[in-house]
Amino acid sequence: MGRRKSGLSPASAPAFAFVLALAVLALGDAFGAGDAAGSAPRVEARSADLLAVGLVQGERMSIHLSRVLDNAPLRDAVVAVLLRGATHPTVAQADGSYTLVTKDLTLPGAAAIEFQVTQAQLHETLKGVLQVAAAAPAADDRSNGRQMWWWALNFGVCIGFLFLLSRRKKSAQA
Length: 174
What we know:
Blueprint: H1 13-37, E1 42-46, E2 50-57, E3 60-67, E4 78-83, E5 86-89, E6 91-92, E7 98-101, E8 109-119, E9 122-132, H2 138-173
Antiparallel strand pairs: 1-2, 2-3, 3-7, 4-5, 4-8, 6-7, 8-9
Helix pairs in contact: 1-2
C-alpha cells in the first residue's frame, strides 16, 4: 500500500472551511471595533494654571482637573459647567475627578463649554469646545454583521466545492 500524502482529509474539509470563515469574521470584527473605540467625545480646556479634561459617555461627563505646573490633581474644588446656556453643578468623586450628568451632553454638534473652578482663593474659568457626533443608526451594525456572515458562508461553500472537485479529479485519475 502506498503512503498517504499529508493534507486535508475529506472529513476535515468542512471543519477547515468553518474555521477559516470564523477567522474572516474575527478579523472583520477586529477592524470594525477600532472605529468605535476612539469615538467618545472629549473636551480639553486650559488656563495658565489649570487643565480640565472631560470625557463624555452618554449623559455623563467625567472631568479631570489638574495643575499645569506639576500635573497634580485639583481636589476639593467647586466645579460648575456652563454648557448650552445652562450652568450645571458637578459632583466630586473619590478618585479626585468630578462628574456631570445632563441630557445636554447627548445633543449632536459643537458646543462651547466653560469649566468654572473655585477653590479657596482660586477662581478660574477654563473654556473649550465639545464636539458630539450624531449617533449612528443601530440598523447599520446589524446589517454589517449579517453581511459578514453571508461572505463567510459563501467563502466556506466555495472552499468546500473546490475541495470536493479536486477529490473527484483525483479519484477519476486513479
